[in-house]
Amino acid sequence: MPPSKRSLHHAKRLAKVVALMLLLGPPVLLLVFRFVPVPITSLMLIRLAQGYPLHHEWVAYRRIAPALPRAVIASEDNLFCSEPLGIDTAALWDQVADWLHGRRPRGASTITMQLARNLFLWPGHSMLRKVLELWLTPQLAILWPKRRILDVYLNSVEFGPGIFGAEAAARHWFGRDAAALTPEQAARLTVILPDPLHWSPRPPDPWVEERATLILRRGGGLGALVDCAR
Q1: Domain check: are 146 and 223 in the same one?
Q2: What are the pLDDT digits (tens) for 76-104?
Q3: Domain range for 180
Q4: Same domain, residue pair 88 and 177
């Protein structure tokens, strides 16, 4: 076989291997992480590369104050418990319309989409990342029960510069375990999720305090919408 054809043959084989890894890799990892703690995420690695420290300690879901998952659902994704594929279709189409009209897309990420992004992807607003996020999210929603999605989300989401998970956040910001968080503290932590590198729950600025109060009120009225968090 001529060298040029041999090189093309090797390139095709490599492309097939990479495609197979991209296709099968995430489902295999998701099946493993359905049962074992996630030691590190893509976002954690990115923050380490950016020079941030890594504060992260996995705790069982029962050791996280119930006020925190309730506040997260109230703030980030009211329909979390009823989304079969983890996607808010109406909000997603609104985001597509913003893209098509040249506007900055508004947030349309559900809790499941945020988790898929944090586990495997990178921060930002590129179309490629959104497409990959939409490919990964249904896999996550199908392979994991809602309670497990919340468990991993609360144990790996970013609550400040280099601060990941409810336990590290509770200790850093309030000097207590995640199990001891008050509803007010849980609401403040939830407020900073959209921009944890720049917002702080302690001492909160007036906007954070106002938003936390709104989340507390909203969380108290969700009723059956938070059943999957119990």
Answers
A1: yes
A2: 999 999 999 999 887 666 666 666 656 55
A3: 39-229
A4: yes
The reply to whether omega before 203 is within 30° of 0 (cis) is yes
**Which DSSP string do the residues of 140-178 spell out, in sequence order?**
HHHHS-HHHHHHHHHHHSEEETTEESHHHHHHHHHSS-G
3-state secondary structure of 124: coil
More confident: 190 or 230: 190
Helix axes of 3-33 and 127-143: crossing angle, nearest 10 degrees: 50
Strand ranges of the sheet holding 163-164, from the earlier edge strand across to the other edge: 55-56, 163-164, 158-160
Which run of H or E residues covers position 130? helix 127-143
Phi, psi angles (nearest 5°) of residue 158: -85, 125
Predicted TM-score of the model (pTM): 0.88
Q: For the chain, what is the domain count?
A: 2
Alpha-carbon span 200 to 146, nearest angstrom: 28
Nearest CA to 72 out of 176, 175, 187 is that of: 187
pLDDT at residue 15 greater than cutoff 60: no
